[in-house]
Amino acid sequence: MITRASRFSSSFPSRVDGAPLSRKYPLKPMLAVEASESQNSRP
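Request: output the structure for the sequence above.
Response:
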């Protein structure tokens, strides 16, 4: 999960389907929240 979160957060801005998806529906905030939670959960 951590690896996926890290890599997702890294390629989220321009890569992955974050940009295109955000156009269809507000997925950016959801991903941002998930990334934040992952970072906070990290030891």
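The CA atoms of residues 7 and 15 lie 11 Å apart.
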